[in-house]
């Protein structure tokens, strides 16, 4: 279908996307200017990296083309990954509040039968095309980017791609084909009742009552917290301690302990140092056999097994056809301009090493676009703010206390609640702010945790760590401030104008210490 001269509203885009998804033989969608062209870059994949990269290249005066197998732009994030996870985490936080305050104050008695994983999945699926519709419209009408959707790309060489029965030529290729979940090598994963974050939203057709999660990733913690909050008894089986996976850096031990103990406090069972041996059942999963850290072998009854053991990039075609170098996990090797080992071929987002996060995907696409257009720029994503959800927002940036003590002679800690021997901090309703005030006044041990790590000599902030609500937005700015050449000092932080009650309290607490020439812990 040629849509170049057609102008769809959002409802029409939504209907077109849904119709295309429902029909495996639906035709490609060509948003092309018409004349034959050699594009400055062909973006293979229209996810976050491809869409932002193409838009930036167009804004710089270039001519990009996006090709995607799906009938929409935006990739897996709004369709199967980060958007549903945020919806489910939102629900988990609400359910957590309702459970703790069941039949107290103005809260009704909590009825677990009204909380449903399947209902939330259906809610998400029913509304997910709205975001796609807007991105298709915006990219076409406002960003003026050409694209071919609903047509799988075939890479011919480093300048040529085929899609939808047509051949397209580009001076450069930008590979953004994303990644897919990987499963461990254990028997029984072919049974019914085995899901990952993709198949959960695409295939779940019953209400789980007991869940075993295999893996200790962010996905394991975030989805597990949601499953358990709905009333589905949830057990996590992980080889390594939670929040100690290679993909997570700078996780402070005190923050980790607060988060994991909080999950256990809510009734989740967590087996760390455990190895899954098999999933058992005749037609559907009925149990998972696990070897625990102490050597005992146990069978965990379940009707729902969730695989959260990571993802692997879709790099095989690029490796075979183009000869790009890849690492041991299939991630395409790039330099800091996003260029692969093959000239004029770039790779972005989940195709390459580093965090599988939205900021990286978008900035990778923009980095590739700027270099293609002659603006030499490098992107170093080894330092970045990070987060995950349980029933809390968990956010951190910069060094942990242990990392700071290994690198600096004098480290000062500002923390809430403080670790002071004999002080009954379980009764301290701090930190607290919007969204945690009810916890603070009624169940103060649930109100959250925070830690600021400071170099006592230079007075520069080295790291910030927070569990609670409402602080995540601030950390993207803290990241910039502490990593800029001049850094951010405790004095500058303490002189900012806080919005009271501020979720992370760092400004207020810094102000209480900033007047001292010789900094000490708080």
Keywords:
16 helices, FAD/NAD(P)-binding domain, 6-stranded mixed β-sheet, alpha/beta, 522 residues, Enolase-like, domain 1
Radius of gyration: 25 Å
Q: Describe the oligomeric state of these chains in a short phrase.
A: single chain
The fold-level CATH name of the largest domain is FAD/NAD(P)-binding domain
Backbone structural class: alpha/beta
Strand percentage, roughly? Answer: 15-25%
Biggest sheet overview: 6 strands, mixed
Discrete helix count: 16
The chain-level mean pLDDT equals 96
* Apparent shape: globular
Distance, first to last CA: 65 Å
CATH superfamily label of the largest domain: FAD/NAD(P)-binding domain
What's the count of strands?
Answer: 25
Spatial ordering of strands, largest sheet: 1-5-4-3-9-20
CATH class of the largest domain: Alpha Beta
Notes on the structure:
- With 522 residues, the protein is of the alpha/beta class.
- It folds into 3 domains: 10-78 and 126-180 and 312-372, FAD/NAD(P)-binding domain; 194-309, FAD/NAD(P)-binding domain (3-Layer(bba) Sandwich); 392-513, FAD/NAD-linked reductase, C-terminal dimerisation domain (Enolase-like, domain 1), CATH 3.30.390.30.
- The chain has 16 helices and 25 strands.
- Strands 1-5-4-3-9-20 form a 6-stranded mixed sheet, covered by helices on one side. A 5-stranded parallel sheet has the order 11-18-12-13-14.
- Helix 2 packs parallel to helix 11 (358-372).
- The longest helix has 19 residues, at 82-100.
- The chain is globular and about 75 Å long.
